[in-house]
Write a structure and sequence with these properties.
Blueprint: E1 5-6, E2 12-16, E3 31-35, H1 36-66, H2 72-84, H3 88-91, E4 92-97, E5 100-105
Antiparallel strand pairs: 1-2, 2-3, 4-5
Helix pairs in contact: 1-2
Length: 114
């Protein structure tokens, strides 16, 4: 098996990085495999995680709107805690302006050009 793209099964392929890849030892090859099934699976996990974090951030927004949380440092600590769960820091960003808490999907983390 030398160079090129070799099908590794349904919807997948492997690209041989050859000697110019990450392998620093002579004779070491690195294969990069793409699987559409794996991509769909990981996408569904990402959607689940984002939904969980979104729900928690919406609850925090409601707390701030009701006046249950007023101090900026406590709001920031609560936001940081909620974003630390389910990899939320990967998907969301937040801001606090004039006592209003706002969260949004982080465009760079999701690979969306802005």
């Amino acid at each position: 098996m030398s160079g090129g793209n070799h099908g590794g099964g349904k919807g997948g392929g492997a690209a041989d990085a050859g000697d110019g890849g990450c392998g620093k030892e002579a004779g070491v090859r690195v294969l990069v495999v793409h699987s559409e099934e794996r991509e769909l699976y990981e996408g569904s996990l990402r959607e689940l995680a984002m939904g969980r974090v979104r729900k928690e951030l919406e609850a925090l927004t409601a707390q701030v709107d009701k006046g249950e949380l007023k101090e900026p440092d406590k709001i920031g600590a609560a936001a940081a805690h909620k974003l630390s769960r389910h990899h939320g820091h990967r998907y969301f960003a937040w801001e606090l302006q004039h006592g209003k808490f706002r969260f949004f999907e982080h465009p760079l983390a999701l690979g969306v050009p802005f």
